[in-house]
């Protein structure tokens, strides 16, 4: 019996190293599997899916914008994860961020608010020889000093564009509020004031409307609110917006893609911005915000709770549903007649995939709309790079400028009577000749 036990012990001890090695190998395999799944390494790169109608303009854009048909290749090791793309954008913004030199403008509003924007002159002539200004609306709580905005502005300046960047009301830490309200999801007053200033200051300039995330909602809503807002506008580009404010907030309570965690983080950031203006919001006698609202704000853990306790009251909305419906661009998108490029990413953790049915449906009804959907990119990430380190310019920066260049050239090549000035066809000799020869 003792001999058998000793033999078994000897056999077991001889097998132990192999068992330990097997456990280690299994652990390594498990970790690698988790990494591959989390980083989405097996996902193939692909060109963006482009939804459009068959028009002369869309044909021209595909010829003039090779990025619409080329693969978007994110950094190999982490760029296929929408979470990492979004996190890197949120924490770092961009790499090797330039510091463009601009002039800050202050615009008094009718309700006593003071809107601000930064104006950056072009660093060279535009390829068409025209004076063109990009009027840019940043994302939630953002402004001209954010790194992704600075990178995009610097690149646009070098391509011959003047840039005007809105600073969302209350977003700049060193600018005090002069009225009892801040920026909201869809208030277009400050953006409209900036556009009006640019039109007055530069009577010959043509405008390119650019909106990022929440800024995309504001930009599209502004264009659709009044036909006159589209005068002298060549095109509009909206990046990573959610299109339907109510549906966006509903999806933020889902745990899918960690959306509930993002909701908490975004809410925490909004709380900090609002509380930094607590004294101004409470001291201005005409405000709708009181101490009880501030107490509810401090306890809030979601954007919807913040919107209900604070944001909807800036414009007197009685219900949260009314606030979301009236502040969303959904009511106005169908009235935008200028060329409109809508950009989104499939792995954007902030924009639920069900929301992407909205731009698809819009494209089917409106020939001026083009919807481009990338496989990767996250929320306002769109980093490019070979292996680990991203390039200073992103796919997003380059596609906006490439699309805009193409639209500017398209407009330049059109007969005078067909340009955005809406000149009468009968007064255009070129069109008269073409009509007679046709």
TrEMBL record:
InterPro entries to which the protein is assigned, alphabetical: AB_hydrolase_1, AB_hydrolase_4_CS, AB_hydrolase_4_sf, AB_hydrolase_fold, ABHD4
Lineage top rank: taxon: Eukaryota
Keywords, comma-separated and alphabetical: Cell membrane, Glycoprotein, Hydrolase, Lipid degradation, Lipid metabolism, Membrane, Serine esterase, Signal-anchor, Transmembrane, Transmembrane helix
Entry keyword annotation includes Cell membrane: yes
Principal place of residence: membrane
EC number, as in UniProt: 3.1.1.23, 3.1.1.6, 3.1.1.79
Pfam families: Abhydrolase_1 (PF00561)
Signal sequence segment: none
Gene Ontology terms: cellular component: sperm flagellum; sperm plasma membrane
Membrane topology, as annotated: Single-pass type II membrane protein
Compartments where located: Cell membrane
GO MF terms held by the record: acetylesterase activity; monoacylglycerol lipase activity
GO BP annotation list: acylglycerol catabolic process; medium-chain fatty acid biosynthetic process; medium-chain fatty acid catabolic process; sperm capacitation; steroid hormone receptor signaling pathway
Catalytic activity, as annotated: a triacylglycerol + H2O = a diacylglycerol + a fatty acid + H(+); hexadecanoate ester + H2O = an aliphatic alcohol + hexadecanoate + H(+); Hydrolyzes glycerol monoesters of long-chain fatty acids; 2-(5Z,8Z,11Z,14Z-eicosatetraenoyl)-glycerol + H2O = glycerol + (5Z,8Z,11Z,14Z)-eicosatetraenoate + H(+)
Catalytic residue list: 213 (charge relay system), 348 (charge relay system), 379 (charge relay system)
Top-tier EC class: hydrolase
Limits of the AB hydrolase-1 domain: 133-386
Family: Belongs to the AB hydrolase superfamily. AB hydrolase 4 family.
Function: Progesterone-dependent acylglycerol lipase that catalyzes hydrolysis of endocannabinoid arachidonoylglycerol (AG) from cell membrane. Acts as a progesterone receptor: progesterone-binding activates the acylglycerol lipase activity, mediating degradation of 1-arachidonoylglycerol (1AG) and 2-arachidonoylglycerol (2AG) to glycerol and arachidonic acid (AA). Also displays an ester hydrolase activity against acetyl ester, butanoate ester and hexadecanoate ester.
Protein name: Monoacylglycerol lipase ABHD2
Organism encoding this protein: Cynoglossus semilaevis (Tongue sole)
